[in-house]
Amino acid sequence: AQSVSQHNHHVILSxxxxxxxxxxxxxxxxxxxxxxxxxxxQHLQLLxxxxxxxxxVKGIKGFEAEFIKSKFSFNLRKxxxxxxxxxxxxxxxxxxxxxxxxxxxxxxxxxxxx
Amino acid sequence: xxxxxQTPRYLIKTRxxxxxxxxxxxxxxRSVSWYQQTPGQGLQFLFEYFSETQxxxxxxxxxFSGRQFSNxxxxxxxxxxxxxxxxxxxxxxxxxxxxxxxxxxxxxxxxVV
Lengths: 114, 113
Fold this sequence. Notes:
The structure holds two protein chains of two kinds. By secondary structure, chain A is an all-beta fold. Chain A has strands spanning 4-5, 10-14, 19-21, 24-25, 31-38, 45-50, 56-58, 64-68, 73-78, 87-95, 102-104, 108-113. In chain A, a hairpin with a 4-residue loop joins strand 8 (64-68) and strand 9. Chain B has no helices and eleven strands. Chain B has strands spanning 5-7, 10-13, 19-24, 31-38, 42-50, 53-57, 64-68, 74-78, 87-94, 103-104, 108-112. The A-B interface holds A 32, 34, 36, 42-46, 49, 51, 90, 92, 94, 97-107 and B 3, 33, 35, 40-45, 48, 50, 55-56, 58, 90, 92, 96-107.
């Protein structure tokens, strides 16, 4: 069965630090990849998505992710985090055809110290 | 345009009861998916409906069921509630099935006592 692994369950950083959240998936075929964010008290929002083309994807709020097919990875990055980035981040994958379900990782709680 | 609307926002039920949750997708969205969110487990897929048909189902017991109406609104039902069913139930809609990405509702927080 397909799965998504997020390596860090809880990350604490100071403002202005660089961020990289790891995400690996287990599926050898074509995938669509997503990062979602859930700010405290808010609903899940799409940060960015990869369907095809340039493996470096830019999303909202300065986030980007790089799809490395050989490593089955889709890591999320931000060069300089802000206190407002405190949230839970979910990596998700949709395998094969676009009519399949989206599988989520267990999430990474990011806490930014002011 | 209006987002995904889930009702009610909060529910408290006792073990053994049943519950029905409702989800109204974004206008024009025909696919509705349901997820269970719990601390430490993240989001676990329940099922997906498209054009009133269940297209995908997760690994949940038969106590969890759902349906979709002709206007794309969806309901989820849980019968014979157990304490472990306490969770945030999220509904997500999309234009078509799966891969175009979801728009999530705020969820229904179910507490089973």
